[in-house]
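Explain this fold:

***
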Amino acid sequence: MADLVPHAFQRHVDVDEAARLIRLTPGLVPLAIDPAGAGRVIWGDLGQHPFREWQYIFTIAELARAQAIGTAFSCPVDILDQDDLFADSLYPSAFIHHVSRCGSTLTTKALARPAHHMMISQGAPLQRGFWALITQNWQHRAEPTPTVLRRLRNLVLAMTRRRVGNERRAFVKFISWNVVYADLIAAAFPDVPGLFLYRDPIEVIASVKKETTAVLLTKGTAQGAFLSGLPVDIGKKLSDVDYLAACYAQYFEAVLGCKANLSLVNYRDLGPNSFTQIIERGLGLFPDDHERLEMLEQFRYHSKDDNNASRFEDDRKAKQMALTDEEKARIKMRCSDLLNQLDHSTRNLFAPDTRLRAVTSSETFARQRQ
């Protein structure tokens, strides 16, 4: 972030001046949290540019390249203790948690289709900075103290400030490993429903081997020990496949043991035929016909192509064939029982007794619309 918006890191103001600037400038939102020392929040004025890129950081990067980020500065993290600053922000309608490479981007892009929907997709301040700050770089557990919950709540609300003027709903997609904090997040927002999207870890890891993931950067660190449940020295020696399997098993265990209001959806059950049911039953969101058709349109396209120039193709079979039998056996040993528990959970929207198998093919959807 310092490379994208260097002037935000170079100008540091006190809390009173930061509050004044935030009140004057609706476009000011948190760009990052620097966890060093007592912590500071990095702010930038994004104006009325809507979050339409598939990740929060890509919106910031696009505006930075165009030199379109206005007022920028840093201030003490104490700014997040001022509830009144963010009282007019959009309160989140739903949270999206996920295991990675499991349709979460498709889901968030679909939810973001209506112009009056705001989507915070893996907000940069929540990717690492906030959690590193409250755990002193993962030296202790994140405790849901009143201060932590207030600051988390205000950080999210600072990102969901009304900047365009027509926003009516806001959704927040967390980075995959944030799901281990699902209960803490729910304690800050007890009335916000959420989805946990997941997929066979064999397919997830096959995808990650082709296109890497930020989680691999944590191997051999204190954060990596937290995510994998393994001591640093042991985790550091693991292959990427075994390290990722350990992390995903931790995610699954966190979801199975959490008390947060999460509905579960396996990737195989996510498609245009099931999406309306997912958002109605899982998120309590009942779109009108126009909104629903806008959202379903996303299923025609590759979700990580912001230009909608490429089509989605089902790659599950290819993913299953991308790993060796030995690698798949090791993943199954660690994750298969947990995966089965997720599939049969009473919180799963498509558990076997009520399963409505989704049609994930975009070609099928296109035929249905003709």
